[in-house]
Amino acid sequence: MRAVDLIEKKRNKEELSKEEISFLLNEYLKGNVPDYQMSAFLMATYFNDMTAGELLEFTTIMRDSGDIVKFDDVDKFLVDKHSTGGVGDKVTVVLAPILSALGMGTTKLSGKGLGHTGGTIDKFESIEGFRFSNTREEVVSIANKTGIGLMGYSDKIVPLDKKLYSLRDVTGTVPSIPLIASSIMSKKLAIQSDIIILDVKVGDGAFMKDINQAKELAKRMIEIGSGRQVKAVLSNMDEPLGYAIGNANEIVEAIETLKGNGPEDLNEVVYTIALLSLKAKGEIKDLSEGKKKIDEVINNGSALEKLSQFITESGGNGNLVNDYSLLPQPKEVMEVLSAKEGYVSKIKAEEIGKAAMIIGAGRATKEDLIDHAVGIKILKKVGDKVNKNEKIAEIYYNDSKNVEDSKNMLLDAYVIQEEKVEKQKAILEIIE
Q1: Taking the CB of residue 316, how many other CB atoms lie within 10 A of it?
Q2: Is the pTM of this model over 0.85?
Q3: Among the options 112, 187, 188, 220, which is catalytic?
């Protein structure tokens, strides 16, 4: 068997057998298939897609390229929530303590942010002393105590995905639905859980700009996970989620949400995923039944207490849920005033994410260091009325180098029109 023959088959839109896919991927992992041949195969896949059988085998071999993490000694209904990435997406920080307070557990790999999208690891690393679990033993210990089992990515889990993603990144093959689906699901299937819930972001600030593409991605991922319970929600990323964009400031907004003061759109996404989890566990028959259960764990403070415990067990000061001065603070604040009067019709979420990135809240490259104190707070959302010279955002910064550019990007991101506009829904569709 030769790699070039398999490249030609994929180029010619012929289906590869399990043995052929296994040969190609395993030989690539060993270093016997060079990058230039795998690049050619990825590009052929980009143009010619994969069949359901090819995609399942491709994902299975990726999953099996490293360790499989089991949680047999965590006696809880385990939920693995994955987001495809967006602007202001602090759902995990809010959701995991709620699930724990409801008697469930979270077991998932969390990532770092890149480009205009933020990462859960970066948000928690705003907390002094906080350290993500990197071994099964650490995450099981914390999950047993708090119900929250978040791990940082490890080279031992799906190493083939890391190698392939680096290649996709430099060969123009990142936006391929089968390659995205296999990358996400190989990691989901390598971690034990009772349900996988995929939060597929759709819109300007998301990787998937088009709802039909997002539906296709969701369906392909559910298909891959047919042996597991997998559900997907399509959520709106045509404006940032919530009001805070950054790291420490997103932790504050997440805590406020657990205190019952959360933004409407963030609550909608968190509640929907929590309700799907309750339904999958068998505690409710219909999504409309469970809202009171979630309200209760927020109102009685038990969800907030779970977050405090998780922070403490991970090396941070859990008292920061009541004392935000324990988080890194920015030195300066710049107000951004609207240049015109009207109604907000659109907020270009990707532009907002980039405006936060250039002041240090995100990374342009994987090697960039993050300033956890800096960020942006938007004060107006789609549908809101705005007066001329009214404050629409605040920029929190330490270095003035790019702050004017950030301000101009924010002003460009706000589209204001004379006619009144309806507020946007956060959840576009649920795919089960």
Answers
A1: 21
A2: yes
A3: 187
CA–CA gap between residue 378 and residue 242 (Å, rounded) = 9
* CB atoms near residue 421 (< 10 Å): 17
82 given a catalytic annotation = yes
> Does the CA dihedral 332-338-344-345 come out positive or negative?
negative
Q: 253 and 243 in contact (C-beta within 8 Å)?
A: yes
Cα Rg of the chain (Å, integer): 22
Q: What is the DSSP letter of 358?
A: I
End-to-end CA distance of the chain: 40
To the query of whether residue 116 is one of the catalytic residues in this protein, the response is: no
pLDDT digits (tens, 9 = 90+) for 331-345: 999 999 999 999 999
Structure tokens at 283: 């505690």
Q: How many residues does the chain have?
A: 432
Task: Note whether 400 and 373 are within 8 A (CB).
Answer: no
Torsion over CA of 348, 352, 354 and 359, rounded to 10 degrees? 160
Among candidate residues 191, 210, 198, the one with its CA nearest the CA of residue 139: 191
What are 200-226's pLDDT values in tens digits?
999 988 888 999 999 999 999 999 998
The single residue of 122, 161, 204, 265 carrying the catalytic annotation is 161
Q: Which two tokens stand for residue 171?
A: 């060969």
Q: Which two tokens stand for residue 255?
A: 């805590």
Find the catalytic residue in 82, 108, 354, 407. Answer: 82
- Residue of 81, 108, 168, 231 marked catalytic: 168
Q: Which of 100, 133, 183, 186 is catalytic?
A: 183
Q: Which pair of tokens denotes residue 314?
A: 């991970």
Task: State the pLDDT at residue 301.
Answer: 98
**Contact residues for 106 (Cβ-Cβ < 8 A; gap 6+):** 78, 79, 80, 81, 92, 95, 96, 99, 100, 143, 147, 148, 149, 150
List, for residues 7-45, the tens digit of each pLDDT value: 999 999 999 999 999 999 999 999 999 999 999 999 999
Active site residue 168: yes
Residue pair 174/168 in contact (Cβ under 8 Å)? The answer is: yes
Residue 398, classed as helix, strand or coil, is: coil
